[in-house]
């Protein structure tokens, strides 16, 4: 059985939402599906980076 998904409120800038809507439409996903895809992809890449870093190297700070 699939794991139950947790719902939560997301506050987002209107311009960002418009861009997400366009991007999701281009990739035939819902906005929710696009956000979930992007988060999963970012987490996968982060985990891959962390596993390849030497133990004495500090983690990179996120770009702002």
UniProtKB/TrEMBL annotation:
GO MF annotation: an example: DNA binding
Offer one example of a GO biological process linked to this entry. regulation of DNA-templated transcription
**Has UniProt tagged this entry with the keyword DNA-binding?**
yes
Q: Which organism is it from?
A: Spirosoma profusum
Record keywords: DNA-binding included? yes
Q: This chain belongs to which protein, by name?
A: Arc family DNA-binding protein
Query: Which N-terminal residues, if any, form the signal peptide?
Result: none
SUPFAM superfamilies in the record: Ribbon-helix-helix
UniProtKB keywords = DNA-binding
UniProt cross-references to Pfam families, sorted A to Z: RHH_5 (PF07878)
- Every CopG-like ribbon-helix-helix domain range: 17-47
């Amino acid at each position: 059985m699939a794991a139950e998904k947790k719902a939560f409120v997301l506050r987002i800038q209107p311009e960002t939402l418009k861009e997400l809507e366009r991007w999701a439409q281009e990739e035939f996903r819902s906005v929710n599906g696009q956000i979930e895809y992007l988060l999963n992809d970012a987490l996968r890449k982060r985990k891959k980076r962390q596993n390849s870093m030497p133990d004495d190297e500090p983690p990179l700070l996120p770009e702002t």
